[in-house]
Amino acid sequence: MPNAAREQQELAESIANDGWAITPPVLPQLAIDRLVGTIESLGTDDGRGGLRNLFETTPAVRELSRSDAVRTVAEAVLGPHCFATRVILFDKTPRANWKVTWHQDLTIAVRERAPIQGFGPWSEKEGIPHVQPPVELLERMLAVRVHLDCCDSDNGPVRVLTGSHRVGRLSGAAIDDWRAARPSVDCLVERGGILAFRPLILHASSAATSPSHRRVLHFEFAAEDLPAPLEWHSRVA
Q: Residue 193: which CATH number?
């Protein structure tokens, strides 16, 4: 088996078994520098800790989702017909040194609200409708996080509970049980590397102890249509 195919298979197996995987750097440093320059031009260091709707505002981010580096990871798990549905920039800085408690990613972004059985509750983020879909759909999605800065133990890395993606949507009490029963793992990623995980894996992050930039482009991928008349808010392939 060629090396590239073997690496894809190993990545897919890791995500199937553990719920997450990390790649070594897959983006050239010059490409990262250009992306960082583009993002800085958007004025992100204002205490918000990130930006939404980058597919609509930033062509370079849209093209990154189509790049071989990103799609190789997404296709290893979801197949060649997958597409990006959403992207969020996260950035921990001294002005936005946030933390996130243990949770699962339970919502998707859609174009318009529609009363579909199994979808709900609804919410809105920066004018875009979001909804919790059936857990079976979330089980077939993948988050692909491209790191534009090195993420070490000092700047608030994502922490995961391995295997928690296989047990569906968890209550608060069940999350506490998982935390008590299993050690968490810090997901340390080099600049230009990728952290990929299933949305249902339990994950959290602490505030950085040495806050600097920790820029991450968080792409969400799917490989199926939503039941009509619902549509994904974005569909980039």
A: 2.60.120.620
191 within a domain of the structure (yes/no): yes
Residue 167 domain flag = yes
Give me the helix-helix angle, 68-78 and 59-66, nearest 10°. 50
Q: What is residue 210's DSSP assignment? A: S
pLDDT tens digits, 195-234:
999 999 999 998 888 777 889 999 999 999 999 999 999 9
Q: Which domain holds residue 194?
A: 3-222
Residue 237 is assigned to a structural domain of this protein: no
**112 in a structural domain:** yes
- What is the number of other CB atoms lying within 10 angstroms of the CB of residue 213? 19
What total of structural domains would you count in the chain?
Answer: 1
- Tens of pLDDT, residue by residue over 79-134, are 999 999 999 999 887 787 878 999 999 999 999 999 999 999 999 999 999 999 99
Residue 169 phi, psi dihedral angles, 5° rounding: -75, 130
Helix or strand run (H / E) with residue 115: none
Rounded-to-integer distance, Cα 87 and Cα 65, Å? 9
The number of helix segments (H) and strand segments (E) in the chain equals: 7, 13
- What's the chain's length in residues? 237
On whether the pTM is more than 0.90, the answer is yes
- C-alpha span between 109 and 125 (Å, rounded): 9
Which residue in this structure is represented by tokens 């017909």? 81
Spatial CA neighbour of 22 closest among 130, 158, 211: 158
